[in-house]
Amino acid sequence: HNNCHRPPDRHQEMKAYLTISHGDNHLGTLRLSLRPDIVPRTVENFVHYLTTKKSQSSSSSSSSAIRGNNSSDSEAGYRDSTFHRIIPKFMAQGGDFLNHDGTGSASIYGPSFADENFLLSHSQRGTLSMANSGPDTNGCQFFITFRATAHLDGRHVVFGYVDWREDEESALVLEKLERVRTERRNDRPLERV
Predict the structure, then answer these.
(1) Which of 42, 112, 152, 182 makes a 20 to 30 Å CA pair with 137?
(2) 156 is catalytic
(3) Whole-model pTM?
């Protein structure tokens, strides 16, 4: 349930969305604005996994083996993946469709790719940014902030934001996501998100 398209104006933003469920309950849709005009490689990587459907074949192609550290799953994409970490008043992290726990990394450029730039900041609720394990280790994981997080500027590549100001459903889904109950020891949701 993922989709992308480019609007005719307003910078060179690309619109996309994530359909979110919590357990068996449909929470709704997060509408996103991506910034390929500022971070084209990062947006291309995100959009690839946003629109990729897991192949029907059980054998993996050579390109799959190159792209990820777990070749049979490297083309799975974000469909049916989870938010494995949610911290109220901070962020929700997801996109690890390889290991589903924050340890998996894959990209269309190899197991990881370099920080493209830090021109966009973590200046608002709903900032969409790359999760990493240090400089130049971007992969498939991303996070969405629940507030401005300036301490992450210069460390994580921002590539878009949730349209929560213009879209009431996105605002409500972001609120519901932030209220998901989690395990205290590791911030993992008690039910699949």
Answers:
(1) 182
(2) yes
(3) 0.86
